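Open question from group meeting: does this chain pack into something compact, or does most of it stay loose? Before anyone orders reagents, we agreed to write out a predicted structure and look at it together. Recording both the input and the output here so the notebook holds the full record.
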Amino acid sequence: MSTIDVRADELAPSQPRTHDTAPLTPPSPAFDFDVAIVGLGYVGLPTALAYHASGSRVLALDVSPRRLRTIAARGADLIDTDRERLDTALRTPAAFRLTSDTAELSRAAAIIVCVPTPVDHQQVPDLAPLRAACATVVAAARPGQLVMLTSTTYVGCTHDLVEAPLRERGFEIGRDVFVTFSAERIDPGNIGFAQEVVPRVVGGATPQCEEEGARLLARYAARVHRVSSLATAEMTKLLENTFRAVNIALANEFADICGALDVPVTEVIEAASTKPYGFMAFYPGPGVGGHCIPCDPHYLLWQLKALHVDAGVITEAMTRIAARPRRVVDRIRDVLGRAGKGTLGARVLVVGVTYKPDVADLRESPALEIIDHLIDVGAEVQYVDTHAPHIHLDSGRERDSLPDPAAFHPDIVLVHTRHHDADLAWLDGDAVVVDGTYRSSDIAGRVLL
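Structure tokens returned:
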């Protein structure tokens, strides 16, 4: 395969980190790189940059030449601090190598797999990217290496896709090679929680694997929390995101209840948040997107279904989350009807289509499904989003962000995602505004979902 190299003239400064695990082991002279990152998406690239900033020699691998070109051109969607890190890293080829050549994985002391784990349109886990990545890593493995899975998946996946195949190759796990799991905890676009600050949970196939995994994470993480097994670490991540999914579904339900009772739901949530214990604020919205919450709980439900284990609360929560975009469409049709307008031919403008503010990520964004459904019922739909200049819908339809939304003269506006730099001064009061964020109180005359 071809590789992409980056020119450099200086090394990034090494920043000392505090941690609650064993002291760092020095870089192994048997390897050219301290760590290889497989997959350079919203998780892998920031992870690679964090290791580079800590002084590690990083092999950054992605099988997509297009993605590598985007990174090399400094066009990746990153928070400002990671942009600065990328700029430094791209000037240090001895310590940060971009490549698409999987054969180079044998040059790294540790390999971290950071590929996506999506679900299909029937919410069935799509393990193809992870299976392919793990098979590549297993084939390239050599004695002395550590393999760490960070992709969220089902309980037992690290054993099935990494540990067992390595054993079949003749490796003794915990002596020849080391197998660990430590799910990522990156929140794209959130500058309030730097990677170094968020604790990492790690489990190993053996106690020695756990020890080596903790040492690797301690190169940049301020705290490493060890658990007793791979399965415990895998289940921890599933609990984290299932917890969020269930509570978001509850918040959406409370929004509907409050709407029926004419009670301001955001005021209720803020009031409840004054309780210093036993409550955590979750806010309603037009749906759930991104690489975690709409997908991860389905890996658990998929596994439990095969075991005939009931998970009624989780199942209902995910059903409600999946139904939320259609609920938004129904609300828009209702609001149009109350204004004396039908959906057929109505001009609908969606403000913001990425799944969360201030990121360019469209994965699982409810806006895409909402737009498709609105078009299906006869509406003329356009959108505006400076973070997403072009979208491709599941139906095959495509749209470009409007350069002048006011010129569209919408009948109704859905505020789906409000970026901090979004200019809504063009809203002149003629169009009805449906606030899908529930928090755009500065928009006069808005109605809530």
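Observations to bring back to the group:
The two ends are 50 Å apart (CA to CA).
Confidence is low (pLDDT under 50) at residues 1-25.
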